[in-house]
């Protein structure tokens, strides 16, 4: 079958949660449509799990964990199966990319290069951790009774059943950010995708089984956040919640997880600054703003959305940025000539347009964009807001759409004050060739990632996460893997 034929067949089914290595046979639960954001038409449908089904999925994941086929498998066997899983995702990459563009709306280029291509690199990196988990040998200083001798060491053990709760902006990639370290460590995992974008992770679950991941180790829960998601987080047999989503829901999840002392990590929202210094290369900064601010229609937690520019550069920067944004071609993600595609849903389109209306009311100037174009899907024109001031919502609230707020500053101290005077602290970027200035400013910025002359790269080897209300914990790198383990101390008298 060609990728298009496979996608068409997959879309024609009514999908359910994935449990014990196959689609759930439960018959209760509302069936809802999955829409194509480019046409606003239904393309597939899913049945939402009710509370009892959550219990069944957790039981399956827990039974698989206790049975030990995966959790106590030889690390080299886990690594080999996970590498095969990555190979299968790569081999089915075109099909997954098309499916992602159809359910989420994003450009097919981004779906191929980032959602699938980037995720496959990440999968291979994480597969390698299965054989590299380690503890330490430690000397003890207080032998009891006097004269006793001890050998002490630590070991990393899989934390248990993991609930991975993911948003709709990069549904496949962010799910794999949780699936891979959990499986590398020997955990069982239940992924709860957004009800708006449930399809790709269901297809990937089939590929995991084909690769050799035992049934019950990797499950998918399709359901509403407030029902199935909340029941999953509150379940006493879930040992860790790894959540990516909004700050508001993250707070609810942290509060619920604490009731059972369930471990949790939170990757939340951002209102990420770009700071142009006086010597910034304007051409590079404009290209960097398009990439850092409008990728995936700005529906990126790390996206640049407030741009601080010295007064002296502002007019030139706004003119060049507005001209570049104005020239972007809008249309469906499957059309490879387009640069701006729909946002995920009618509801989200309405939310972005409301933010634009508020920005106008508060005195911002729209230099380009500002409305929904006359197209059938959920589109928002890419928009530049000039004359934004620090107190305005456009400088402070996460819009999560194709909207760039430009704010002028007098001194670098004032710029850094505005950068840090935010509830968020996910990413930031500095645009300068003055190395000394950049090195002075980097430690002053309250953000989990600071880029210089770029605003985009995330890498499996670079920890990623938020200061302040942008989250708790980090994804990527050794620390992220270790967050799927418990640390056990062992002390042996001899
Ligand atoms: P959201 O918080 O509304 O939903 C995220 C997920 O949580 C969905 O699967 C949803 O069904 C589920 N959920 C909702 N209520 C729940 C509850 N009470 N209990 C359990 N689960 C529940 O976020 P969204 O609108 O899907 O995504 C956009 C947000 O995600 C933005 O704020 C964005 O910044 C953030 N995000 C952060 C990162 C990061 O790495 N920091 C990455 C991507 C997106």
Automatic annotation (TrEMBL):
Pfam short name (any one): Aldedh
Active site residues per record: 267
Residues covered by the Aldehyde dehydrogenase domain: 28-490
UniProt xrefs under InterPro entries: Ald_DH/histidinol_DH (IPR016161), Ald_DH_C (IPR016163), Ald_DH_CS_CYS (IPR016160), Ald_DH_CS_GLU (IPR029510), Ald_DH_N (IPR016162), Aldehyde_DH_dom (IPR015590)
Keyword Nucleotide-binding: no
SUPFAM superfamilies associated with the record: ALDH-like
Listed Gene3D superfamilies: Aldehyde Dehydrogenase, Chain A, domain 1, Aldehyde Dehydrogenase, Chain A, domain 2
Keywords, in A-Z order: Oxidoreductase
PANTHER family for this protein: ALDEHYDE DEHYDROGENASE-RELATED
Family statement: Belongs to the aldehyde dehydrogenase family.
Protein name, as recorded: Aldehyde dehydrogenase family protein
Organism: Pseudomonas luteola
